[in-house]
Amino acid sequence: MNEKISWSNFDGTSFQKFCNALLLTEVSRHARVYSAPGKDGGIDQLFDGTYDGKPGKWRFQDKFHSSKKPSQDFQELKRDVEKDILGNFSGEQHIVYITNVNLNPKQEDQLKAIANKTLSTLSIKPEVHFWHHARLEALISLNPLLYHWYWYPRTFLRPFTEYFLGKLEY
After folding, report:
1. How many Å apart are CA 107 and CA 76, to the nearest integer?
2. Is residue 67 pLDDT above 90, yes or no?
3. Looking at residues 68-74, what average pLDDT do you find?
4. Which distant-in-sequence residues (6+ apart) come within 8 Å of 151 by Cβ?
5. Distance between CA 65 and CA 73 in Å, rounded?
6. Alpha-carbon span 142 to 132, nearest angstrom
7. What are 95's strand-pairing partners?
8. Element (H, E) at 61
9. Cβ of 130: how many Cβ atoms within 10 Å?
10. pLDDT tens-digit profile of 90-148?
11. d(Cα 151, Cα 135) in Å, to the nearest integer?
12. Could you tell me which of 140, 25, 122, 31 has the C-alpha nearest to residue 82?
């Protein structure tokens, strides 16, 4: 996969479906994923176990932003991080924000500083991680099934009637 990932066909719901599939393939098939409407305490996905050599309770939060201005998306993400942390966290050792926003190192450090400052007011000390656009591109390239499923679903699985009629246009 050499193409740059485009989020133009995504919205918050489709991004959450993608994040759920990503967690089940990247983190563990035992991750708990959610998409039901209603009050969920801000929980998008949970995992209790070891990921990337780090044991503990993990909370994953999906943050999709699609304005035409990257600076506006970053500002909205900053507000999301602070608002989420002020919500209900219950003993997680790791909080992972999954976002389509493309961050540079300075922006990622700024988000971590906001998260850590807000967490210090709550006297909880989970480690905060950001899976932003560039990391998602890397994870998707390691899992081409997700790429084809979410970006090219019609070319990935063809109805058998089309296959046998020779209609294999890409």
Report:
1. 13
2. no
3. 90
4. 5, 6, 9
5. 6
6. 16
7. 59, 128
8. strand 54-63
9. 21
10. 788 999 999 999 999 999 999 999 999 988 888 778 999 999 999 999 999 888 888 87
11. 17
12. 122
**CA–CA separation, 109 vs 71, rounded Å?**
16
- Written as one string, the DSSP assignment of 93-137 is SEEEEEESS---HHHHHHHHHHHHHHHHHHT---EEEEE-HHHHH
Q: How far is it, in rounded angstroms, from Cα 65 to Cα 76?
A: 8
Three-state DSSP at 139 gives helix
Q: How many residues does the chain have?
A: 170
Distance, CA of 167 to CA of 170 (rounded, Å):
9
Query: For residue 153, what are the contacts with CB-CB under 8 A and spacing of at least 6?
Result: none
Q: What is 17-58 written as a DSSP string? A: HHHHHHHHHHT-TT-EE---SS--TT-SEEEEEEETTEEEEE
Please give the structure tokens belonging to residue 55.
Answer: 């044991």
The strands making up 54-63's β-sheet, listed across from edge to edge, are 32-33, 45-51, 54-63, 94-99, 127-131
User: How far is Cα 52 from Cα 26, in angstroms, rounded to an integer?
Assistant: 10
